[in-house]
Amino acid sequence: QLPQADLALYGAARSLLDWHARHRFCANCGSPTMSAKGGWQRDCGHCGASHFPRTDPVAIMLVEHAGRLLLGRQPRFPAGRYSALAGFVEPGETLDEAVTREVQEEVGVRVRDVRYLFSQPWPFPSQLMLACIAQAGDDRLTLDAEELEDARWFTRAEVARSLDSPAGEGPFDPPPSRAVAHTMLRWWLDQP
After folding, report:
1. What residues have CB less than 8 Å from 119, skipping those under 6 apart?
2. Helix (H) or strand (E) holding 146
3. Structure confidence by residue, pLDDT tens digits, 75-90
4. 121: closest CA among 49, 26, 24, 13?
5. Confidence of residue 5 (pLDDT cuts 50, 70, 90)
6. How many whole angstroms separate alpha carbon 73 and alpha carbon 150?
7. Cα 97 vs. chain centroid, distance in angstroms?
């Protein structure tokens, strides 16, 4: 509900407040920490360690096959909502490897030609969404029911209708307009 110009300020504040709430104690010795550097650091008075806010990288990806996009829905989504697949980048993993692993785990599809598109900070609680697109080797799906409630392939016309229709009137309800997944769908439609 905030104006676009205020979203970055809100996102930074929300991320910092969440970080302070979760890091009141030193990860090295367990002693209480104190806010420092205007809230951008926490210091331990016992062992002298300094702690800094972190950002967790998340791969969010469009998967394309024969001119269609693979979108999924989690059980927590509002009814009818489909979005890009996503998952955290694990330690020691490249962005390409995270995209490949997440798609394989969630829908059983092997992908290639992973390409980075753009990014968006997402303060829930402290993530950096790394938007990518990948090509699927085939369109057979094997759903991980613990991750996704459903996944489907959508044509360019279905994606366009969904983005341009009121909620509940298109083939699916897209992510909110301020979410990177929505921007990704618009970007995909603009490609030749």
Report:
1. 128, 129, 130, 131, 180
2. none
3. 999 999 999 999 999 9
4. 13
5. confident
6. 5
7. 15
> 70 is written with which tokens?
């693979």
pLDDT over 80 at 2, yes or no: no
75/81 Cα distance (integer angstroms): 10
Cα dihedral across residues 14, 18, 21, 24: positive or negative: negative
Cα angle for residues 170, 173, 176 (degrees, 5° grid):
135
CA-to-CA distance for 13 and 126, rounded, in angstroms? 10
- Of the candidates 83, 75, 43, 74, the one whose C-alpha atom is nearest the C-alpha of residue 172 is 83
Helix axes 156-164, 180-190, angle to 10 degrees: 130
State percent of the chain over pLDDT 90: 85
